[in-house]
Structure formats: C-alpha cells, structure tokens
# Entry
Amino acid sequence: MTQTPRYGKLNGGADLDEAGQGDEGGGEGRMTEEAAAAVAAEAAKFDAIGVEWRDPDGAFAPLHAMQPARLSFLRGHLDALAAPAAAMGRRPLTGLRVLDIGAGGGLAAEPLARLGAAVVGVDPSAEAVAAASARAEGFGLPIAYRLGDSAAAARQAAETGERFDAVIALEVVEHAPDRDAFARDLSACLKPGGLAILSTLNRTAASYLGAILAAERLLGWLPKGTHEWRRFPTPDELSASLLAAGLEEVDRTGFVYEPAARRWRQDPARLEINYALAAVKRAL
# Structure
C-alpha cells in the first residue's frame, strides 16, 4: 500500500560513506563534452537492445516483471489527478497530457494511453521509437513518440512552450548526467500542480548485490554495463533535487521481488533497491 496521494494546496539524508557512496548528484550548468559523450554512449547501449523491448523474456524482462507494481503506483497518483474525468464516466485518465521520458518500447505509455491519457514518449533509441510508434499506430493509441535525448527531453519541451499535467521518468534519472538539472527541467515542463513520478535504484550495498552482481553479472537479467552503481541516487538525494526544483515529494514506495510468487510488490518500507517517488509542482 502506498500513502494516500496528497494533492491540492501545497505547503510551502544522510549519505552512505563506504565505497564511494557520497553525493553523486547535482551540479550546476549544462552538458559538458564529457557528459555529451556519456549521453551518446547511453543511447548506443540501449539502441543495441532496442528491438527487445516487447520481449518479456529478453533484455528488458525485469521491467516486464515489475510492470504491474509500477503501474499500480502510477495509477494511484494519476487517477487522483484526473478524478473529474472518472467522475463523469469517461476513461480514468481522460484529459491528462503525460510526458514519458525514456519511453523505450512503450511499456508505460501504452497502458496510460489506453486509460485515456494523451502521451508524448521520448527515447534515445531509434529502434525502440520505431517499434513503439508502429505499435501505437496499429492500435490507434494517442501516443506521439519522439527520438531524442532522455536527459534533455523535458527541457526541450519546456523551451517550445509545451506543458504537461504529468511527467514520468522510469529508470531514467540514474542515467542523467546532471540530476539537479534534470529535476529543474521536469519542473519547467509541468503545469502548476502537475505531477512528476520517477522510479530508479537506491545506492546501497543491497542494490550493488542485487542490480549489478546478480542481475547483470550472475543471472544475466540485464546486459552487463546497463547501470553504474555510483550514479544511483538515494531517495533523500532525489527528493532534495526535486524540492530544489520546486517539486514537493508527496509519496515514495519501494518495489520488492518475491521469488516464490515470481512477482514484484510495493512496500513503502523497502527502499533499499528499487523505489519510486511522486512529487507535485508547487502552485505559483
């Protein structure tokens, strides 16, 4: 169970020490040549496996397995944001405009669109965007996919005057070269009262064992090199970056894998590996 979402009028951690677990976020300024190279490397990494997005047994199998739990967290907050539509008997997310950053093959964009949201999905993988666009067109879904840098997607949208009711970034912030700048860009493209939902991995010994050693190196659930553990933000670090950008945290939850049931579940007390945060943009 997650906390009850808190919307409407808004009232205006400690880092781990060992193995380089200090502050890895933030920093001012825009992209350096080194950061640009890192972004290009990330795009190439995911483009190489982009055709596997819809394969539940492929490179993105962990995200397919986690999908019900993640969607439950998304729905809990997006449904509250779009409550008037549901009250009028329409699809529950009717009227919401959602930006999905790092949309990949549309694992989140498609179900949100089926629930009535108008979705813009941005991803740096040409393979993923092409496949997702074809699926959306085939099913007649209101999703506009764009090829672009996930870390810059929100800023580019804001610079062209686009504003969204909600922005989601699932397993993206750990790949952004500048977490604080990424948070500011999310805020810039949100309407006042809009919602940002991010999921990522915590920077703990448990996440190193589970996400790096086990998932990438031992079990092969993810290609080696998918993640850099030092870039995982702790929940408090991520919350602080969002707050500095005018986005106030309203909920957080962890995702826990149950091997016996072969499924993931939400647990607000278990943030040591996978977790999600929801934050609302303060009204001006």
User: Anything to note?
Assistant: Confidence is low (pLDDT under 50) at residues 1-30.
